[in-house]
Amino acid sequence: MVIILLVTVNLLTLVGDIEQPIVGYGVARVVDSRHSDFKKGDLVWGRTIGWEEYSLITTPEYLFKINHTDDIPLSYYTGILGMPGMTAYFGFFDIGSPKEGDRVYVSSASGAIGLLVGQFAKLIGCYVVGSAGSKEKVVLLKTKFGFDDAFNYKEEHDLDAALKRYFPEGIDIYFENVGGKMLDAVLLNMRHHGRIALCGMISQYNLEQPESVHNLIAVLFKQIRMEGFAVAECYDQYSKFLDFVLPYIKEGKIVYVEDITEGLESGPAALIGLFSGRNVGKQVVKVAQE
Amino acid sequence: MVIILLVTVNLLTLVGDIEQPIVGYGVARVVDSRHSDFKKGDLVWGRTIGWEEYSLITTPEYLFKINHTDDIPLSYYTGILGMPGMTAYFGFFDIGSPKEGDRVYVSSASGAIGLLVGQFAKLIGCYVVGSAGSKEKVVLLKTKFGFDDAFNYKEEHDLDAALKRYFPEGIDIYFENVGGKMLDAVLLNMRHHGRIALCGMISQYNLEQPESVHNLIAVLFKQIRMEGFAVAECYDQYSKFLDFVLPYIKEGKIVYVEDITEGLESGPAALIGLFSGRNVGKQVVKVAQE
């Protein structure tokens, strides 16, 4: 049994049966435990934590103990130190196979994962352009998060032309969060031996019929590697990830932002807001006070 | 300068300017040479050999010397010992990452490359199903080429249902020669962590607008790896390939067939025949007698 402090709003892992609480990633304190790895008082993060004040968790294999230190906000374990951070890290490094000088494009760049991918890419000397859905987000990407450039995809009636403007020599790595028309335009602009890390397709989740992709033949002609990624398969490497990311956080070399709303009742609006692009950074719902 | 003995009919490498000979893969004898690696009388195979009786070759980096032995037909160097053989070998092993027991699906299975992929897969203990475009080809796949099963895609109005019949537990490796609707149906039937080796998309080459693919989200949800392949990038490993394939040929463990037409004038019909699925095995045009 855990008490929920924070739940996060994300998409792929949301499971909701009618009359059951939605399940997602969260941070919680254990109030009782019959499992030897967890004891009363432990702080944990993980998935299968419900949108509720108290949760009964029967899948402890998806829970991680938090060795909390005062200089790291607990909420970071819903984001940069949790699932989104690991998705950005393993998706970018394992599937993207980046090297210095690579040209990297990140869609949905002002979301929790995109922000981190862009910064990881800059840390190793890539050229990084992100797209987002408002003028404000574009400014933030360029000024606060260190992207080399950014554009508002809603203002581009021709995504292919937009990508050619920012990547006249093409794209080496595309970190895909969007799907649909964006992927089609990207395929036209990938470089030979480019890599596409498929980590999300938010534009497709609510469609009855998925949008079609027309330019897949580029994968053949340009010898592109496209690969789907599920962070859950990397959880056994959590400590490796912490060793990489914690020093950067402590040295202030990674900028991280959250959009925290208070109270379980604000959850539905926060969830729906993701689809209209309301949030910048990780959307978090605070359920109880620590 | 080389005299052309055989030219092959294939698709991706055909280059034809009006009033210039079509260029493809061929086997030839050198009649004159200013390059120290090739001397008069040498037999060679390679690309950029024209559909013509005599050819001037200025790109010797794409020519391989043939150390001909009497028990191997020269024409094999247009197929199993040349580009199609290497495409099957490196596409299947490098991109497919096969292991014993994997379920392998090969489209265009009665073509030069598909026939070899199916046999390579059987050699390492995979379950292999191929599709082709006629009853006769399906019979050949099952009886002569050792496929576990085969079907005529033209008789299936629902490709998804057909694949579910042959792969009730899904597909681990898809060797893609076709594209379009077939790829869409395959995506629905891939297994978790499946691999798709894109080596050709013959259904798409003559379309003004490529067909669209609707089920790409499967790549994300099933963590599929899809990769385009170009054999030219493996030519530096030609001797490794010969070490693998020659013993199997000599021991009769690989069945190989060719469809050889006589005379340069038969070339156009042979080329067009590929698109209607006329040939079984490698389509070769014999231009001159050895």
Could you explain how this protein is built, in words?
Chains A, B: Keywords: Oxidoreductase, Signal. Chains A, B: Residues 18-58 form the Oxidoreductase N-terminal domain. Chains A, B: One of its GO terms (molecular function) is 2-alkenal reductase [NAD(P)H] activity. Chains A, B: Residues 1-17 form the signal peptide. With 290 residues, chain A is of the alpha/beta class. Chain A has two domains: 2-79 and 256-286, Alpha-Beta Complex (Quinone Oxidoreductase, Chain A, domain 1); 84-231, NAD(P)-binding Rossmann-like Domain (Rossmann fold, 3-Layer(aba) Sandwich), CATH 3.40.50. The first copy, chain A, is 27% helix and 24% strand. Chain A has eight helices and 13 strands. The first copy, chain A, has helices spanning 83-95, 112-123, 135-143, 159-166, 181-189, 217-221, 238-250, 267-276, and strands at residues 2-8, 23-30, 43-50, 54-55, 63-65, 103-106, 127-132, 149-152, 171-176, 190-198, 225-228, 258-262, 282-286. In chain A, the strands form two sheets. In chain A, strands 1, 2, 3, 4, 5, 12 and 13 form a seven-stranded mixed beta sheet that branches. In chain A, strands 8-7-6-9-10-11 form a six-stranded parallel beta sheet, sandwiched between helices. The longest helix of chain A is centred in the first third of the chain and has 13 residues, at 83-95. The radius of gyration of chain A is 19 Å and the shape is globular. The interface between A and B is medium-sized, with 30 and 30 residues. Strand 11 (225-228) of chain A pairs antiparallel with strand 11 (225-228) of chain B.
